[in-house]
Every structure is written in structure tokens, then in C-alpha cells.
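Table S2 (text version). Query chain:
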Amino acid sequence: MALSDLARDFRSAYLDHEELTAQLRAWEAAHPHLCRVQSIAVTPEGRDVWVAIIGVEPDRIRPAMWIDGNMHAAELAGSSVALAIAEDALRVHLEPDSLDLSPAMLERLRDVLWYVCPRISPDGGEAVLRTGRSVRSVPRDARVERGQPRWIHGDVDGDGLSLAMRVQDAGGEFALAREFPGLLVERTLDDEGPFYKVYPEGHIEHFDGKRVPSPYFLGDNPIDLNRNFPWSWAPGHEQAGAGAFATSEPEARGITEFAVAHPEIFAWVDFHTFGGVLIRPLGHAPDSKMDQEDLALYRQVEAWMTEHTGYPTVSGHDEFLYEPDKPLRGDIADFAYNQRGALSYTVELWDLFARLGMPRPPKFAQFYERVTRADLVKLAWWDRDENEGKTFPPWRPYEHPQLGRVEIGGIDARVGIWNPPLHELAAVCASQAHVVLRVATLAPRLKIGRVVRRPVGQGITRVEVKIENDGYLGTFGVPSAKKLDFNEPCYATARVERCELVDPGAAHQVLGHLDGWGHGLHTGLNLPAYPGTRGTTNAGWAVYLVRGTGTLDIRAGSCRAGFVTARIEI
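Corresponding C-alpha cell output:
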């Protein structure tokens, strides 16, 4: 069955958990030899965190790509992009002519394994899709310290949605925009009123009838899954959203356990929204502290990202800290790079700032704080003309049981701010898939090269077996990953039938890591001032002395690079 016949509209709609599950199951049912679906965690609300394993012989260890999305509940476009990448990974085997890839790239992609987790937070995604309420990651709160007044998000007027409430107040921080009816903008000294305070739709727990607490985006959903991973984890008083302890949440724990069990993951892409940017390591230090060979590899990814999406690439430390000199802790991409040795990066999908025509600030993260009144008015008109008014619905009067007269509605960030409009989703999916497929071609690839047999007398044969890596990356993945304990060097193991090894202790031979041929970009290699490349560091030899006639079976490789085998007649 053609893949187009199996598609569940993820390129033109944001799927709920049931629809997303149906898409994965459809691929699995139609192509069981290429797609297997596995649950790596079950949420407190009973939803599975799915991983689709895509590739021939899924149990055969070999270099693998990890793709994830929708860790933050409202960032639904990440799920669509992850599903699009999964579909293109299937196309590599089923419909290769439909992909804009060279034969050389397709040939390499056929041996890459894919682990695709399209929705890390199914509970959060479901809450956002159904109600529109603001959820950072998961709609739950297991804290015991809950005695302070706080906002609880929820539908108070019975329309099924939980959006925003505005209350007229002389001390309000917002005023009405003259250029667009109903639009609230940041108040200035020239404004004459009326003025408004803006709160989430819901009610106040422990309300004393007088003091309204300030809303906080983690107020009734205190977990940020992207602060719950074990790399550089810090408690909540140091890192907001951290959780009770590293991997305290089943979603983060399931991913961490899967990653540890699969050292073959050599590259890792984490999809978020919004902004239109690729964020690469380091997250905790400047580029001067980064392995420079790693940095050259990221320049190649940057070149592809620029070509196919127009998104810039920035250092997480240099351009994407929310507070100066305060790196994010417990981040999944940092975990993937620093602890799992993967070529990892994060993409913030949906280039809203470019759509608004905003000039790029000195640091990319400053985009989020530099949206002007004029930018917001432009967004409102765009929403009306091109987005069916999804982002700025009308306000409706309501008598709130705690606050009295309020107006509800006004802001629905799901489609237009948090995520791209539906008519642009397919283009976002396609452009990111173009990049990710190219990143996958960087995989190391082991092969059995030459086999040399030399009789040495007395019924003994010297067998020399050359094991080669003809992949872009070395068998270690990114160069800095060599230091990781699990990242073992390549080895060869021999077994014999109807013959014997002269030295049985030589059955297991350590070959060491094997370099790839790739260097990344801007390393000076193209300048022929001093011609030369690496030596034969991409190959190793296993040598055996065999007595008699029979077969010599060789298995060579490592837990990260995978294994190749050869049966040699003696």
C-alpha cells in the first residue's frame, strides 16, 4: 500500500493521541518488516509514549537516528514534523524516487535505523488540543507544598476551552490597540484607557477575596520535561520546572532508559516551537570550550539547515540563554550530546519573527522579548487575513464567581503563535525532513574489506581480515564522544568450525576506533597549501593463524557502530 494511502493528515492538522497512535499502527500493519511500534513509558493518564523503530532488520545493531517532538505540550508541530520524518524514512525503502536525494545518499540511508518519538508528552498535548489551556509539559501537579494562592487553569464559562480572561483595572498593564479591535497591547504613557489585567481562564485556589496572585506558567503544572533529564540536573529552586529529581517523570525516564540501552544512537534531533532556529551545543559554555572537531561537524548541519529551511544556527550558550550566565539544566539535547555522545541539536519550528519582519537582535533569544506593539498589530491582521482569526478570537463578557465582571477569550496561541498555521505545516515538515535525512547520511558504516589467506606451512593458514569504516563519522560518532565509557572501540571475534585457532586467545582482538572520512566544514582541508589527509585510520586488521581446513566466522564492530560478519573458507 502506498504511503500516501496510509497518511492521517499530520501534514495539515495537529493529531490527537488516538489519531497519532492510529498513524503509527497503520505503518506497522502495512509494513511490519520496516516499522515496529514500541511503548517506552505510560503516562499517569494512561497514554503510551510511542517510539516507531524504522528500518530493515530492526534488531540488528547499527547506527541510529533519534527524533523526538512535542515535549512541551503546546508545541504540536514537533509531532507533525517527527511523523513526516518517519514517513520519509519509510520512503527510503518503499518509494525512494519520491525523495530529493542522490543515489549515494539513498544507499547510505538504507542501512540507518530510526527511532522516532513523535510526542513525548501525550497528556500535555491532549490537554492543549482539547481545551487550549496553557501547559508547559504535563497537566499534573504532585507537589505537596500547595498552600499558597495560585491560579488553576480551567474552563469557567462552559464552552470547553480554557483561554484568557481580561479584567478592567486602572492599574492594568495592557491597553486596547487602536489599529485592531479587541487586541490588547502593552500599555504606554500615551494611552488613555481603558486598561486591563490579563489572567488565564480559571479560578484562584485559596483566594482571600482581595489579593489576586500573579499568574505563573508553571503554577498548576510545575514540570518542564526539558529540565528533568540527568545532564547537569538541578533542583527547582535553581532550575524552574526541574521536577523532584532527575528523571522523576515517566516520560523523561523512559527516554533516558531507552537511550542508555541503545548506544548506537549517533545523532539526535529534538523539535520544539517556536522561533525558526537551530540551537546546537554547547549549552553551558562558549564555543571556545567546545571540541573543535565537533564544531566543524555542526557547521555542516548548519549549512543544510540554512539551505533547506532558512533558519539560522546558534550556540545554546551564546545566543539562547534566557538569563545571562545561567545555562539551562536537565535539557534533553544537552543530555544527548554530553552523556550519550550524539550529534544532537534542537529546532524551534515556525519562524514567526521573520513573518513579522523583525530585525535580528544581538542574541537570538532576545527576539521573544522584543516584540513591539506594531509587531503585535501586524500579527493580528495576519491572523485575520491568513489564519482564519484563530489566534485572536473575540472577547465575551462573563460574571466570574471570584473576580466579578470579566471578559473571556481573546487569545488562543495554539495555531499562529505556538504552532504554524495549518496551511503552512506541510512546508515546515518537508523542509525539516530534507535536513534530517541528510544528517542521517553522516552515519559511520562498517564493512569487511579485504580477506587475505597465506599458507605458512604445517597445515597452518594466516588469515588477515580488513575491517573498514567508509562512513562520514568515525565509529565513535562525534569526536568528543570517544571519552564516554560506553563508547567502546571496535573489536573482532572469531569462531571456527572443523579447524582450530593456533592461539585460541587471539579469537578476540581489539581494533580500536576507526575514523570516518568526514571533517565537517571550514577545517582548511580544501586549501591545497600542504596536501595530505589522514592515514589509514579508517581501517583495522584482525589476524588469525588457523590450523586445518574449515570455516572461520568473523564478527567485527562495536555497540555504537554496529557489527559486520564474514564467513571465510579455509
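Notes on Table S2: The longest helix spans residues 422-440. The radius of gyration is 27 Å.
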